[in-house]
Amino acid sequence: MKTRALSFTLNGKAIGPLDVPEGFSLLDVLNEMLGSTGTRMACGRGICRACSVIVDREDGTSATLPACITSAHGMAGQRVRTVEAHAARDADGSVSELSPVQRAFLDHYSFQCGYCTPGFVNEATVLLERLARSPIPRSSVEATVLSALDTHLCRCTGYVRYHEAVRDLILATPGLTKPD
Questions:
Q1: Same domain membership, residue 136 and residue 54
Q2: What DSSP element (H or E) covers 176?
Q3: Residue 46 and residue 114 share a domain
C-alpha cells in the first residue's frame, strides 16, 4: 500500500511525519498508529458520531468531525483534539481532574456502556467553547443543546441524561448565557 508523510498536532503535541497509507482515515491513524483509543469506531459511516474529534481552526473556533470518514491526509497541518485531551493530568500522566463536561456527565449518570461518550464529550466541549465566545439567552439553552447534540446516536440511554448534563452545565457556568 502506498504511503505518504503526515504531520499534524494531536492534543497539543506535534505528530509526525508519519508514513501513513493513503487510504487511512483519521480514526485509523489515531487507533492503529498512535494508540489513541478513546476515539471509537462504531458505524464507520460518519452517522453515529461516536468517533467525533475536535479540530481547532486558525481563527480560534473549533468544530467536531467524524474521524471514521475523515481522510488522515486531509488533517495535514491541522490541530486535533480527542477525548484524551480534556482531563487534567498530573506529572505521572494520571488523570487528576476531569473536565467540566466529563464531570457533568458522571454527575448526571449520562451513559451506560460509554461507547458513544467520547463523541458527546467532544461535541459538548465545542458547544461550551462557542458559548464562552458568544453567550445565548437563557431561554435558548434547551434548543441549543438539542441542536448541538442531535446528530449523536446513543443506543443505551435515550439521550435525556446527556442533554440534561449539558443544559445544567451551561446554566451553572457564568458567562455562557445572558438574560432574555
A1: no
A2: none
A3: no
Contact 141, 124 (CB under 8 A): no
pLDDT tens for 31-67 read 999 999 999 998 889 999 999 999 999 999 999 999 9
Instruction: Name the grid cell of 149.
Output: 447534540
Q: Which three cell numbers stand for residue 105?
A: 456527565
| Packing angle, helices 160-172 and 141-149, rounded to 10 | 130
Report the alpha-carbon distance of residue 141 to residue 170 in Å, rounded.
8
Angle at 142 between CA 138 and CA 148, to 5 degrees: 115
Domain containing residue 59: CATH number: 3.10.20.30
pTM score:
0.94
State how far the Cα of 25 lies from the Cα of 130, in Å rounded to an integer.
27
How many angstroms separate the Cα of 85 from the Cα of each of 81, 101, 102, 134, 138? 6, 12, 11, 23, 29
How many other C-beta atoms are found inside a 10 Å radius of the C-beta of residue 69?
15
How does pLDDT run across 132-168, given as a tens digit for each residue?
999 999 999 999 999 999 999 888 876 789 999 999 9
Q: Give me 103's grid cell.
A: 464531570
Reference 153, options 81, 68, 61, 70; nearest CA is 68
